[in-house]
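S.,

Sequence below, as promised.
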Amino acid sequence: MLADEIAKILLDRGAVKINLTEPFTWTSGIRAPIYCDTRALISFPDAREKILAGFLQKIAEIGLEFDAVAGVATGAIAFGMLVADRLKKPYVYVRPEPRDHGTSRQVEGSLAQNSKVLVIEDLFSTAGSTVKAVAALRSEISAEVVGVIAISTYEFEKAATKLEEAEVRWWTLTNFTAIVGQLEISEAEKKAVLEFSADPASWFEKQNKKT
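The prediction came back faster than expected:
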């Protein structure tokens, strides 16, 4: 399965780290047993090729038709460009915020108005950056966003809700459950890690109470 293959790549190349005893602190302040940084993959030619093949397979499976590709800064800039290059499509990337000087644009590159755009993401956590990127494409070039494909997702309910509210179709190559399934840890430890996606804000506190 594609989800298992991509999960293995993430783990083999150190893009995903797990630590139950000393959880990671995210920017939001959440204490998490997992840290995923897909940027680590760009250093490895074999990983880049497999991730690209995964995107192309997913695009073909869904049957998406689009005029151009957009990558979400910064984690998906490289992967979006790889997809666009392989498919010979125009490419842009979307900044987290509009420029505070010059053109004040958030979408970098040039696309025709009303283009059908496929958005490439690296990771869905809360999906806030994804929704902002889609909004920028819709606002600046009146884009028809046909969907967003990400490498992985933490499977937070909040992310799915945000994407649905923004009327965004979305897919991923792999997910939190598939990644945890590949871990060489005990079943009890896997269960503890999986509990994180169900209640990320309270996970650390609940784990401390168990111990």
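The first helix runs from residue 2 to 12.

Coffee later?
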